[in-house]
Design goal:
It is built from seven helices and eight strands, in the order E-E-H-E-H-E-E-E-E-E-H-H-H-H-H. The strands form three sheets. The protein has a four-stranded antiparallel sheet, with no helix packed on it.
Length: 184
């Protein structure tokens, strides 16, 4: 099986989907899914300073696969950054709290869930925007590791929280957790 190495030497298995791809430039070698280009300013904001020399290379892409450890890849240069090798928690790749959703306004999935399920002050995306300011920032291309607006992810978290609203067990757990959060 073919492998690639991350920037710090982590060995990653190459996906059969990548190997079968006709054009590989924008395909993550680990997930086999097409990524989108990221700007140099995005890359520079999220990779460690010691790797900034790579910022000037064109051709970096963001891997959107939630279960893939690769965040940024440049197949032409064979440079790969994993979750462990970037400075920012990548919300769509995280499974434990805090899970960032809106980077510009520092809003987490847990905050959105609290507003909907515990405080019960929100029941729509518009309410979430008003109470948390999620999706109101202007620096998504810099602050979000994906280099684009968080809208799709905020909407998904809102919809998930709303579907769980009727789950009494989940609601009780959320209330218990909420009571442990300091008011300051």
């Amino acid at each position: 099986m073919a492998t690639v190495q991350s920037i710090s030497g982590i060995t990653l298995s190459v996906s059969p989907a990548y190997e079968a791809a006709a054009t590989k430039e924008a395909v993550c070698p680990v997930s086999g899914i097409s990524g989108h280009r990221v700007r140099q300013v995005t890359l520079g904001n999220h990779i460690p300073v010691e790797h900034w020399r790579w910022v000037w290379d064109e051709g970096f892409h963001f891997c959107p696969a939630s279960d893939c450890p690769v965040v940024y890849f440049n197949n032409a240069q064979r440079v790969y950054f994993t979750k462990a090798e970037v400075r920012t928690r990548v919300g769509i790749k995280e499974t434990t709290a805090p899970i960032p959703v809106c980077y510009c306004m520092n809003v987490t999935a847990e905050r959105i869930q609290e507003e909907i399920q515990v405080k019960r002050c929100c029941d729509s995306l518009e309410d979430i925007k008003e109470y948390t300011k999620a999706r109101t920032g202007k620096l998504c291309h810099v602050s979000n590791p994906a280099g684009k607006c968080c809208g799709k992810h905020v909407t998904a978290v809102v919809e998930k929280a709303l579907t769980h609203l009727g789950d009494k067990r989940l609601e009780e757990q959320a209330r218990e957790i909420c009571c442990q959060i300091p008011e300051d």
